[in-house]
Design a protein that fits this description.
Elements lengths: L2 E2 L7 E3 L5 E2 L11 E8 L4 E9 L7 E12 L4 E13 L4 E5 H4 L3 E11 L11 E9 L4 E5 L2 E3 L12 E2 L27 E5 L9 E8 L5 E8 L2 E5 L1
Parallel strand pairs: 1-13
Antiparallel strand pairs: 2-3, 2-14, 4-9, 4-12, 5-8, 5-10, 6-7, 6-9, 10-11, 14-17, 15-16
Length: about 230
């Protein structure tokens, strides 16, 4: 499974204290597709991923986990390789898993989860919520973030087998993301950005433009180019 045509970049800002902010308003709203900004399976790191079916009645729902790996074992670049797993959730069911055991092939990347029917086709099921927690056993701290939730509108309408975020199958992504605050650099503080390009995987590069304002209301501009997924110091 792949995303098509639409790009979400600058998804999450991570602060050195382990706090995270949502890229979209209503990050806690249930949806048919959940996009988790990262998983970290490196030595000394443990990522706990949770998905919950908030429907209180009705049939069971199958969800597919699609891992997009940027780095494989030993840190080698695997060019956005895909790894898939399925799970069945009953109404009010919650599944929490350790990503290193769920997907032992990749060290870092991102993962999305979507609802589908028994035939494997995506369906509208706006009852999924989730969370992500990463525990750093080496630096002795942890941080958590919410997945970006996308409302579904009717499954794979054009039959192309892709998750189209075009406002017809799923909600559209924003062209601009506003971040109200980031921590200054230096000392014990280190702000980081996670970038996700949802178009073309490693076959295409995505360039992000920045306008950054300091405490004196002075504006500075910059840009950054990446492929597929990246996590960099701000």
């Amino acid at each position: 499974m792949r995303f098509h045509k639409y790009v979400l970049s600058g998804l999450t800002v991570l602060a050195g204290l382990g706090m995270a902010s949502d890229a979209l308003a209503g990050g806690r709203n249930p949806g048919s597709l959940l996009l988790y900004p990262e998983f970290d399976n490196r030595e000394g790191e443990v990522t706990l991923l949770t998905v919950t079916n908030t429907a209180t009645s009705g049939d069971d729902i199958t969800v597919e986990f699609v891992y997009i790996g940027r780095f494989g074992q030993n840190g080698n670049d695997v060019n956005c390789e895909e790894f898939n797993r399925n799970a069945v959730l009953t109404p009010n069911d919650t599944l929490t898993l350790i990503t290193n055991y769920h997907n032992p092939q990749h060290e870092q990347g991102y993962v999305y989860v979507f609802a589908k029917d028994d035939a494997g086709a995506p369906v509208e099921h706006d009852y999924l919520i989730g969370s992500l927690m990463t525990i750093d056993g080496i630096d002795k701290f942890e941080y958590s973030m919410n997945p970006v939730s996308y409302e579904g509108f009717g499954g794979d309408l054009n039959g192309n087998g892709l998750r189209d975020m075009d406002g017809l199958e799923y909600e559209q992504n924003p062209e601009e993301i506003l971040v109200p605050r980031y921590l200054g650099q230096g000392g014990s503080y280190q702000s980081e950005l996670i970038f996700i390009g949802l178009t073309g995987g490693a076959a295409f590069s995505t360039t992000v433009d920045f306008l950054i304002y300091n405490d004196n209301e002075e504006v500075f501009s910059s840009e950054y180019t990446f492929e597929c997924w990246d996590r960099v110091r701000l």
